[in-house]
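Hi Y.,

Following your request, here is the sequence exactly as I used it, all 191 residues.
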Amino acid sequence: METSFRAAWRPDLVERIRGGDRGAEEQLYQLLYRGIRLLCLRHGGVEDLEDRIQDAFLLLMGTLRRGDLRDPECLFAFVRTIVRRRSADAAKFAVKSPRTESLDSVHLPAPPEMVDPEHRLLRKEQETMMRRALLGLSEKQREVLVRFYLREEPWETICREMALTYDQFRQIKTRAKARFGAQGRAMMAAA
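Below is the corresponding structure, written out as tokens. Let me know if you'd prefer a different format.
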């Protein structure tokens, strides 16, 4: 990861992302995808691999958009730290992170292998199914999943603001994920 990353790395990407440039986000995503994938595999195995990759990118992009990374030259070390900490959190609590907003406002760049028109159409159809599956959840379940996985809010914040204990949060999240998955599989079977 480090060799290809260093060869193509341009610190101005961080400034462009800070300024809201979606093209810069896509460029950084494609630049880092393979390396983050390998780091996630190394630190957490194949279970929930894509979820952990997306978690790492969401946290990274949120940090960059807020301007919280002071030295763009430290991006590579920061990415490794994110992956290690997220893997440790997942192992320790079996939990990830996010926040609410309109589902349409959530921007997840496509992985590098999905850049041709056919894959973009497939991705759009999958996103539509995911939105429908989310709408099939109860309001509380949907809020927990969106805040935790899409908006990357810490579970502590979600629990405090929704007046939940950690066990209630875990139970809601686990049931919501199961229901979301079942609805997604049902939609795929019907398609």
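The radius of gyration is 17 Å.

Thanks again,
Q.
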